[in-house]
Amino acid sequence: MPIATVNPANGETLKAYEPMGEEELERRLQLAEATFRTYRTTTFAERARLLQQAADLLDEDQPEIGRVMTLEMGKPLKQARAEAAKCAKAMRWYAERAEALLADEEPAASDVTDSGASRVRVRYRPLGPVLAVMPWNFPLWQVVRFAAPALMAGNVGLLKHASNVPQTALYLEDLFHRAGFKEGCFQTLLIGAGAVDGVLRDERVKAATLTGSEPAGRAVAATAGEMIKKTVLELGGSDPYVVLPSADLDRAAEVAVTARVQNNGQSCIAAKRFIVHGDVYDAFAGKFVAGMEALRIGDPMAEDTDVGPLATEQGRADLEELVDDARRSGAEVLCGGQRPDGPGWYYPPTVLAGIHRDMRIHREEAFGPVATLYRAGDLDEALLIANDSPFGLSSNVWTRDADEVERCARDLEAGSVFVNGMTASHPAFPFGGEKRSGYGRELSGHGIREFCNITTVWQGA
């Protein structure tokens, strides 16, 4: 894929970039290593001051960077602006809390004495340059939720962003530089996917984080494993949305629509499989389909647009293949299911029913505004359907029954369980998945410690 901004609303190439050559890439790796040697010794107060300045600048830039994101990947402009605001919030959260999250820990006195020491401390030290391989769907947020904790921990960042959001990628480097971070603290590498392996193999790069597809995760994990380097992977998701008889159906159906089509349906944590108890299936389905049909599809720059185009032409083709396969295998199309005429990579909000295990869409992630409906006889069957997936990123359950809440919290195979609400990431809570959705955690104290050397400091008498 060329490194270029291509407007998904009309297919027009707006700006193209040449990939960095070997000489420039080497210069940046040298700079990252040299900058880390001094940046690692800065105080938390100094790092926090710089990150707060970045947050302030991002707030000022929100209208323009929102427009850039919409031009590059097609999300509705109002959602792009909200993404920028969320990034500034996360920066401030880490600026205010990182020092406490990474404070030295002292084991119990009895254990210190038992070890023969006079004092023992557990200290969190930065690793060094960390490579971040990031996707286009949340082109600002995916990066900031790595960069903010990494920088506050004393690491430096190297960003390999998706090739279709180069302007957002370059903006991020410029943002941190304007905030006062030294040039080598955060660098954007304009390189193709084929160059990632070489960067990860470089001894100066100490760890990697990737958000993206399962194949990309496998490739990064394989190389990192060979090189014995730490990785965090956040991969695909096909999140279940379980609706049980005691649920507030009006609210569950309303939230279900947003949960499926947020970011034009291109979100790993979007609810995708709607598993509804038979007692309320028909009522929920009617409300849900009506909500999906009422969505406004159009120019992502328009304030009243709910669903814009998919980010890439290939992405739309992949989504169509899943829908067509399900239709051929007997799925019922309750709404949508046909691409509209005209320019741009639009696809309508779609609901499919009658899904069974032989359909590809049951096993694969539908990365676009396509929902699948399942009917479950009871909670046991609902959980079986929910867990019958190679993914385990997040999950949603709607019930007023306390016992059902605890059962789902125990048995749903996912990194998060959201009860009577839509999955969302927040800087205070750990985020990540299990199974083929990846490993490790982002955000919260867990996320900032992922790229730290947990060091035991033992002192004798």
TrEMBL record:
Aldehyde dehydrogenase domain segment(s): 3-457
UniProt GO MF annotations: aldehyde dehydrogenase [NAD(P)+] activity; succinate-semialdehyde dehydrogenase (NAD+) activity
Stored CDD domains: ALDH_SSADH1_GabD1
Alphabetized InterPro entries for the sequence: Ald_DH/histidinol_DH, Ald_DH_C, Ald_DH_CS_CYS, Ald_DH_N, Aldehyde_DH_dom, ALDH_GabD1-like, GABD/Sad-like
Record keywords, A-Z: NADP, Oxidoreductase
Keyword Disulfide bond: no
SUPFAM superfamilies noted in UniProt: ALDH-like
Family the entry assigns: Belongs to the aldehyde dehydrogenase family.
Protein name: NADP-dependent succinic semialdehyde dehydrogenase
Organism of origin: Streptomyces monashensis
